[in-house]
Amino acid sequence: MKKFRWPIGLPIFLLVISFLFNKQLYGVFGAENYLSIHLMVEIFIVVYSFSIAIQAWLIVPYVLSNKRLYIGALFLSLGLTELFHTLTYQGMPFFLEKSSSYSATWFYMIGRLSLAVGLLSIYLLKLRDSVPKNRYIAYGLSLVYTICWLGIIYSPKTFLPSLFIDGVGTSQMKNGLQYVSAFIQLLFVAYIWRSKNVQKKEAEMLVLGSFYLILGDLVFTTYINVYDFRAMLGHLFQLTSYYFFLKALHHTSVEEPFELLMETQEELESSQDSLRYTIDHDELTGLPKLHFIETKLAEMLNIHKKAAVLMMEVDRLKVINESFGSKFADQIIQGVSKRLSCVESDKRVLGKGNNGEFILIVPTVSNREEVTAICEKITQLMEVHFPVQHHQVKVDLNIGIAIYPEHGRNASDLFRHAQVAMHQAKHQINRVLFYEKNMEKCSEQKMLLEHDLHKALENQELYLDYQPQIDVRTGEIISVEALLRWKHPTKGIISPADFIPIAEESGLIVPIGEWVLQQACSQVKKCQEDCQLTIGVSINLSIRQFFQHNLAHTVKRVLAETQLHPACLELEITESMTMDRKHAVETLCELKELGIKIAIDDFGTGYSSIAYLKDLPIDTLKIDRSFVMQIPTGDTVLISMIISLAKHLNLTIIAEGVEEEFQWEFLSREGCNLIQGYLCGRPMPLHQIIETIHFQQAAQI
């Protein structure tokens, strides 16, 4: 109560003064000034009322609260009744009829009772979500309610008794109505004071506003005429109460959401070091990533005359992963990382490549024998079997070596040549190999694959698989992600990891991407028609596609040809595509105008700025599987913050790479919308997904 001593003490003091010295204060402001003073006070009351109504109208599409909507409609009616109370006040110019205490007092009384009953009723209602179109209904009913009272009061036939007699004062009926409104206001205060559903600051403002209204009720039962000091004091109390009601609505609808957003942003900003570490370091091993290592190597090459790059991969890691699962493979990678750390020193730098390779930079090497000795030490470290899930696993490393400046004069060439040697090292007895120029034959194979890729579209060798995206709460399949596959006529299934980078480099990704768009939209539309199912499809955009000048035109044409509803199509981009902010915003706006959805894929691993993420016209954030893998044993703070950020930005959140039920349970608790991963289903033909949906529907029946 200490902080409210002035808001409570001052009106009580003024109330006491008005009763003790009412005769001395009668007409204290001058009889000729009372009308103007009353007019100014009423103008503020009307402004406050309409401000609350307008503010509620504007925030309903964002807050979606039925309570906020009804408060706005209530104060719209109050603003109108106060306006007519002002226009009909004694001494005001002619408006529809001559001003009189009859009309003015009844307009005031209607507003006062409406406010008391309305506030109590609204806060007794169960809080529900509303929809923007309900504004028109609620505000329309408010206008009808007010118009009905206007008809009654302005009717040529008098239906209501007079509430005020000049020279005598208020009638018993007015005093009774005033006490009824004060009693209802007291009930409202008691409910607000005990309610756990009303936040503290909102409750404080509502109680203060009610307190001033109750004091006004007491004052308005005792004044004699408009020149009575208590009449003016009652209007001031009413004005102050409306100020506190406006402040309560503003706090809960504007200040509080903004404060929550700022708190979230502060939490995100405070974790910038963690985010930078995540960007620069591998989540599984904690080792620096390729771009960080590349920068370090470039710095070393400027200092040292000779250096070596060792690139290492776990032999047959893919087979291990497929045979025993990703957890098994991850434990092996972590174990290898710990042993390789023994080779690291102040001068040497150990890191992790984009494709799972380990990279060791060795500066100041004098000869090949020194590098060979390091490789022998690494091989010895791998001799001891790795204990993984009650198994003893023998791990071999394939090591490729590139020497500066013999095998390259920049970091990029050294990494590339070391990688070429690493892929060839698996054929060596000791699995260690220095780069040689004849190894470039691998590039020839790459060119052959590119040549075959040119024919793949024409020969119908490409096809699509789909991975389901399911609702976390219901388990229902909501949409699917289209995934490109290639079945070579002689080589069989070729991994997307092998041919998609080639398509990107050669530019073939553009016609292939358009084919994927056409096929996915066509196939999903056909399934919608044949199976009477509403299902969406998500398609990845390559960076070359995203920077096409006619991307929006292409998407529009495909939608028109396939007759797929735009809302059923979602295009996925990566965070790196938004680095050129101007192009990103322009392109995304063009796509959004078509009615499609936009998703940011692998969110959290790129370079999106939180400061302007809210400005991008996107609908969905897809959490990268690297974050999901940390559930629940790893650091889950980032994934919780990403979900919180998406909620504040009204975005749908999808988690990728969900493979375990406890990951699903965690994401459900945090409020994630959709998930996809092997737990939900591996990539498969669309007809199998449709069969799954039908099976789910049959099971529900």
Q: Helical content, roughly? A: 55-70%
Name the poorly predicted regions: none
Radius of gyration: 37 Å
Strand arrangement, major sheet: 10-11-13-14-15-16-17-18
- Average pLDDT over all residues: 83
Shape: elongated
How much of the sequence lies in strands comes to 5-15%
Secondary-structure content class:
alpha/beta
Counted by DSSP, the helix tally is 26
Biggest sheet features: 8 strands, mixed, barrel
> Which oligomeric state applies?
single chain
User: How many distinct beta strands?
Assistant: 18
The separation of the N and C termini measures 59 Å
Structure report:
The chain is α/β, with parallel strands linked by helices. The strands form four sheets. The protein has an eight-stranded mixed barrel, surrounded by five helices. A five-stranded mixed beta sheet has the order 4-5-3-8-9, sandwiched between helices. Helix 3 (34-63) packs antiparallel against helix 4. The chain contains 26 helices and 18 strands. The model has no long low-confidence stretch (mean pLDDT 83). The longest helix has 42 residues, at 229-270. It is elongated, with a radius of gyration of 37 Å.
